[in-house]
Amino acid sequence: MKLLLLRRYFITGLLVLVPALITLYIVVGAFNFMHSAIGQHIDSFLRQFLPFQVPGIGVVVSLAIVILVGVLASTVIGNRLFRFGEHLVTKVPIAKEIYPAAKQIIEFMISPKDPSFRQVVAVPFPMKGHYAVGFQTGDAPSQIRTGAGEPMVSVFIPHSPSPITGFTVVMPLSDVIPLDMTTEEAVKFIVSAGVLSLENGESVESGLGENPPDAL
Length: 216
Known about the structure:
The chain is built from six helices and five strands. It has helices spanning 2-46, 57-74, 76-89, 95-110, 142-148, 183-191; strands spanning 119-124, 131-139, 152-158, 166-172, 177-178. It has a five-stranded antiparallel beta sheet with strand order 4-3-2-1-5. The relative contact order is 0.11.
């Protein structure tokens, strides 16, 4: 009896902690990335003028810079300047291949309404009999379609619980199963590692009530 009670408490604790830990993991990862990309350089620069070190000042200044860039980009003149800058970036040999893809992924993460990710699908991955939720991003390159001799499509399969990165796979269209769900629902399912239901987006713990299950 005590063992069953402990098991119930353990499962309830998992359902409470796992979503919080996933959120913390993503937020901390984002802050660490911002600090390594911008914050540490700002810290080094400020040390030349401040007699003491202020913990986290680099991240704070980084956030202020991001907000300032957003304000400037929202103006007519600022928007034109940034578009001109993007145009210049797309002329650089290596950057022109990386920048558009990176921008598309970030726009998708911030506001998942990009038409390139509009079709949510289930595909056999990483092997037959196992399925992953992903986004059909378009047709495969013509060379692959010609070599395969059948319709082929590109699918982006995000990592869980951090969907910023993932796998891009090319597979036969016949293996792709379209899902009747929005990109927001798919992102919730992926980020929550399946904790959120595909059907109604509710957490599994919402159906527990006052009586959590005795076993998985």
